[in-house]
Specification:
The chain is an alpha+beta fold. 37% of the residues lie in helices and 20% in strands. Helix 1 packs across helix 5 and helix 4 (114-126) runs antiparallel to helix 5. The structure holds iron/sulfur cluster (SF4). Residues 151, 154, 224, 226-227, 230, 232-233, 236, 238-239, 244-246 line the site of iron/sulfur cluster.
C-alpha cells in the first residue's frame, strides 16, 4: 500500500492529446462490421478516410480532480456523491457503486474540435458513404483521446499515492445527462474546448466525451491488467518513470 501524499486536487488543466493512429478494427466495429470480408478497394478507401480524420481532428482535453466530500441520499432516496468545492453532484445508484470507497474523483472532457464537425457536414452533402466512415473514424479517435486524458488522471492520482478505476460517462447507467451543463462548466469546457450543449444535452462538437474516474487508496480489481495490454500506455507517464498504476 502506498502512503498518500498530502497534495491538493488538480486544478483545471487543458492539454492537447496526440492521437496519431487508430486500429482499423475499431473503426470497423463502429461501422457494425462483424468479420465480413473487406475487399482491397474498400480497405483502401477506409484507410484513406481514417488518415483524413486523423489530419482534421485536433484532440484536446480539460481535466480536473476533486476530493469526495460527502455521500448522502436525495429526497427521492437516490445516492449522491458530493465533491468538495464543486457544484457537480453525482446522483445515481450506478455511479455511487462506481465510486464506492473513492476518496477523490477525476473529471475529463475531450473534443476533436470544430473542424471535424464542419467536415462531417460537408461530407453529408457530398458523399454519404464517406461521411459514415469518417464519422466512425472520428469516434475511434475521440475514444483514443479519452484514453489519453484518462492517462493524465491516472498520473494525477498516482502523484497523490492513489489508484484509479476506469472511466464512466454521464448517460451511463442512471447518471443522468442533466449533469452535463455543470460537468462542462466545472471543466470550463465551453471556453477552453469550445464544447456546447444542444437543448437535448448532446455535446457539440459531436465528437466530444465527458467522463469521470474514481481515485482510491488501494488498487482496484479489474481496473487494469498490466502495461502490455493497457489502452492508456501511449500516454502513460508512469511507465516512462518505471512505475505502474497497479501497485
Ligand atoms: S500503461 Fe501501465 S502504468 Fe500506465 S496506466 Fe496502463 S497499466 Fe497503468
Amino acid at each position: 500500500m502506498r502512503v498518500r501524499a498530502r497534495l491538493t486536487p488538480m486544478p483545471a488543466t487543458v492539454r492537447d492529446i496526440a492521437v496519431s493512429e487508430v486500429d482499423r478494427s475499431e473503426v470497423l466495429r463502429y461501422l457494425g462490421y462483424r468479420g465480413q470480408e473487406l475487399t482491397p478497394q474498400l480497405a483502401g478507401r477506409l484507410d484513406e478516410l481514417v488518415a483524413h480524420a486523423l489530419e482534421v481532428a485536433r484532440p484536446r482535453a480539460s481535466i480536473r480532480s476533486f476530493d469526495v466530500e460527502a455521500r448522502e441520499l436525495d429526497d427521492a432516496g437516490t445516492p449522491v456523491v458530493r465533491l468538495r468545492g464543486c457544484a457537480l453532484a453525482l446522483a445515481g445508484h450506478d455511479v455511487s457503486r462506481h465510486l464506492e470507497g473513492a476518496v477523490a474523483v477525476g473529471l475529463l472532457a475531450v473534443t476533436l474540435g470544430a473542424d471535424t464537425e464542419r467536415e462531417l457536414r460537408r461530407l453529408s452533402l457530398t458523399d454519404h458513404v464517406a461521411q459514415v466512415v469518417f464519422d466512425a473514424a472520428l469516434t475511434a479517435i475521440v475514444e483514443r483521446a479519452a484514453d489519453g486524458a484518462e492517462a493524465l488522471l491516472v498520473a494525477d492520482a498516482a502523484s497523490r499515492g492513489l489508484y484509479t478505476n476506469w472511466r464512466y460517462s454521464p448517460g451511463y447507467g442512471d447518471l443522468p445527462l442533466s449533469c452535463q451543463p455543470t460537468f462542462l462548466a466545472v471543466l470550463d469546457a465551453g471556453r477552453r474546448l469550445g464544447i456546447t450543449l444542444t437543448p437535448s444535452l448532446l455535446m457539440v462538437p459531436t465528437k466530444s466525451v465527458t467522463a469521470l474516474v474514481g481515485y482510491f487508496g488501494e488498487p482496484q480489481v479489474g481496473a487494469r491488467t498490466g502495461c502490455a495490454t493497457c489502452n492508456l500506455r501511449d500516454w502513460c507517464t508512469l511507465r516512462a518513470r518505471g512505475v505502474t498504476c497497479v501497485g
